[in-house]
Amino acid sequence: MKDKKWIDCPVCGETNSMVFKTDVSENFNIKDYGNLKINNIEGYYCKNCKDGILTKKSQNHINAAIAEFKAKKDAEVTVAADLISVDEMAKKLKLSRQSIHKMMNIGKIRYVFVGDIRLPLKNQKVSHK
Protein backbone atom coordinates (compact mmCIF):
# COMPACT_ATOMS: atom_id res chain seq x y z
CA MET A 1 0.00 0.00 0.00
CA LYS A 2 1.34 3.42 -0.95
CA ASP A 3 1.87 6.20 1.54
CA LYS A 4 -0.39 9.22 1.24
CA LYS A 5 1.19 12.41 -0.08
CA TRP A 6 0.41 15.05 2.52
CA ILE A 7 -0.11 18.66 1.39
CA ASP A 8 -2.18 20.26 4.17
CA CYS A 9 -1.31 19.74 7.83
CA PRO A 10 -3.92 17.59 9.61
CA VAL A 11 -2.74 18.88 13.01
CA CYS A 12 -2.80 22.67 12.69
CA GLY A 13 -4.83 22.94 9.47
CA GLU A 14 -2.25 25.04 7.60
CA THR A 15 -2.63 24.65 3.82
CA ASN A 16 0.32 23.71 1.58
CA SER A 17 2.58 23.44 4.62
CA MET A 18 3.76 19.82 4.45
CA VAL A 19 7.31 19.17 3.24
CA PHE A 20 8.78 15.69 2.67
CA LYS A 21 12.03 15.25 4.60
CA THR A 22 14.48 12.37 4.57
CA ASP A 23 17.33 11.44 6.89
CA VAL A 24 15.64 12.92 9.97
CA SER A 25 16.86 11.88 13.44
CA GLU A 26 14.51 11.57 16.41
CA ASN A 27 15.14 10.89 20.09
CA PHE A 28 12.75 8.50 21.83
CA ASN A 29 12.32 8.10 25.58
CA ILE A 30 11.26 4.49 26.10
CA LYS A 31 9.60 4.03 29.48
CA ASP A 32 11.69 1.91 31.87
CA TYR A 33 14.43 1.52 29.22
CA GLY A 34 15.99 4.93 28.61
CA ASN A 35 16.64 7.07 25.55
CA LEU A 36 17.18 5.92 21.99
CA LYS A 37 18.19 7.99 18.97
CA ILE A 38 16.90 6.69 15.64
CA ASN A 39 18.29 7.98 12.35
CA ASN A 40 17.14 7.76 8.72
CA ILE A 41 13.49 8.61 9.39
CA GLU A 42 11.43 10.09 6.58
CA GLY A 43 8.03 11.67 6.40
CA TYR A 44 5.99 14.81 5.84
CA TYR A 45 6.64 17.66 8.28
CA CYS A 46 4.60 20.84 8.71
CA LYS A 47 6.48 24.12 8.21
CA ASN A 48 4.07 25.83 10.63
CA CYS A 49 3.63 23.54 13.67
CA LYS A 50 6.67 21.27 13.01
CA ASP A 51 4.56 18.13 13.54
CA GLY A 52 5.28 15.19 11.26
CA ILE A 53 3.62 12.20 9.66
CA LEU A 54 6.02 9.34 9.02
CA THR A 55 6.04 6.93 6.11
CA LYS A 56 5.12 3.29 6.77
CA LYS A 57 8.74 2.34 6.07
CA SER A 58 9.94 4.74 8.77
CA GLN A 59 7.32 3.56 11.25
CA ASN A 60 8.43 -0.05 10.70
CA HIS A 61 12.07 1.05 11.10
CA ILE A 62 11.22 2.74 14.42
CA ASN A 63 9.26 -0.27 15.71
CA ALA A 64 12.13 -2.62 14.82
CA ALA A 65 14.75 -0.35 16.42
CA ILE A 66 12.74 -0.02 19.65
CA ALA A 67 12.11 -3.79 19.79
CA GLU A 68 15.84 -4.48 19.36
CA PHE A 69 16.75 -1.83 21.96
CA LYS A 70 14.37 -3.39 24.50
CA ALA A 71 15.63 -6.90 23.66
CA LYS A 72 19.23 -5.93 24.36
CA LYS A 73 18.28 -4.31 27.69
CA ASP A 74 16.03 -7.24 28.68
CA ALA A 75 18.82 -9.73 27.89
CA GLU A 76 20.75 -8.36 30.86
CA VAL A 77 18.04 -9.34 33.38
CA THR A 78 16.18 -12.28 31.79
CA VAL A 79 16.80 -15.83 33.03
CA ALA A 80 16.99 -18.77 30.63
CA ALA A 81 13.83 -20.34 32.07
CA ASP A 82 11.82 -17.40 30.69
CA LEU A 83 12.88 -18.09 27.09
CA ILE A 84 11.44 -20.30 24.38
CA SER A 85 12.82 -21.30 20.99
CA VAL A 86 11.38 -19.85 17.79
CA ASP A 87 10.22 -23.35 16.80
CA GLU A 88 8.36 -23.81 20.10
CA MET A 89 6.76 -20.36 19.81
CA ALA A 90 5.69 -21.15 16.23
CA LYS A 91 4.11 -24.40 17.39
CA LYS A 92 2.43 -22.71 20.36
CA LEU A 93 0.88 -19.97 18.17
CA LYS A 94 0.31 -22.28 15.18
CA LEU A 95 2.34 -20.03 12.90
CA SER A 96 5.40 -20.48 10.71
CA ARG A 97 8.92 -19.71 11.92
CA GLN A 98 9.01 -16.92 9.35
CA SER A 99 5.89 -15.35 10.87
CA ILE A 100 7.45 -15.49 14.34
CA HIS A 101 10.60 -13.73 13.10
CA LYS A 102 8.51 -11.11 11.31
CA MET A 103 6.46 -10.49 14.48
CA MET A 104 9.69 -10.11 16.48
CA ASN A 105 11.00 -7.63 13.87
CA ILE A 106 7.95 -5.37 14.16
CA GLY A 107 7.73 -5.64 17.94
CA LYS A 108 4.61 -7.81 18.28
CA ILE A 109 6.58 -10.56 20.03
CA ARG A 110 9.05 -9.58 22.75
CA TYR A 111 12.44 -11.24 22.57
CA VAL A 112 15.95 -11.04 23.98
CA PHE A 113 19.40 -11.58 22.53
CA VAL A 114 21.42 -14.57 23.68
CA GLY A 115 24.71 -13.88 21.96
CA ASP A 116 23.63 -13.15 18.39
CA ILE A 117 20.50 -15.31 18.59
CA ARG A 118 17.06 -13.82 19.19
CA LEU A 119 14.82 -15.89 21.48
CA PRO A 120 11.19 -15.02 22.29
CA LEU A 121 10.04 -14.63 25.88
CA LYS A 122 7.95 -17.60 26.96
CA ASN A 123 5.08 -15.98 28.86
CA GLN A 124 3.61 -13.10 26.91
CA LYS A 125 0.26 -12.24 25.44
CA VAL A 126 0.46 -12.22 21.66
CA SER A 127 -2.37 -11.15 19.39
CA HIS A 128 -1.81 -12.43 15.88
CA LYS A 129 -5.33 -12.51 14.44
From TrEMBL:
Superkingdom of this protein's organism: Bacteria
Pfam families: MqsA_antitoxin
UniProt-recorded name of the protein: Type II toxin-antitoxin system MqsA family antitoxin
